[in-house]
Amino acid sequence: MRTLQEIHSEIDRESERRTELWHELSETHDPEVSAQLKALEGRLDRLWDEHRAVRATIRWGERERIVARARQEERLERAA
Fold first, then answer.
1. CB of 35 within 8 A of CB of 25?
2. Contacts of 22 (CB under 8 A, 6+ apart)
3. CA 65 to CA 73: how far, in whole Å?
4. Can you tell me whether residue 45 is helix, strand or coil?
5. Per-residue pLDDT of the chain (80 residues; tens, 9 = 90+)
């Protein structure tokens, strides 16, 4: 698992690249630049998803442990 700082640094780099692409696209419409921009937007979305997942893991723990704990609590409630 990558650290929040690593992910955020990559988000910053990709955001700077996105700004550059928008400037290029504003000067003249280029289908290749447009395609790069679209791919970069998808990459940024995935990075932000990863960032949120890592934050959730730090805050609440590993997903598998949370699910196991919830199932155990559910079994205890049914048994009571």
1. no
2. 37
3. 12
4. helix
5. 799 999 999 999 999 999 999 999 999 989 999 999 999 999 999 999 999 999 989 988 888 888 888 899 898 888 87
CA geometry: angle at 46 spanning 40 and 51, to 5°? 125
pTM of structure: 0.77
What is the b/e burial string over 37-71, where b = at least 16 CB atoms within 10 angstroms of the residue's CB?
Answer: beebeeebeebeebbeebeeeeeeeeeeeeeeeee
Pair of tokens at residue 11: 């988000």
Cβ atoms 11, 55 nearer than 8 A: no
Question: Residue 28 carries which DSSP code?
Answer: S
Amino acid (one-letter) located at 23: H
Tokens of 19: 């700004």
Question: Three-class SS of residue 62?
Answer: coil
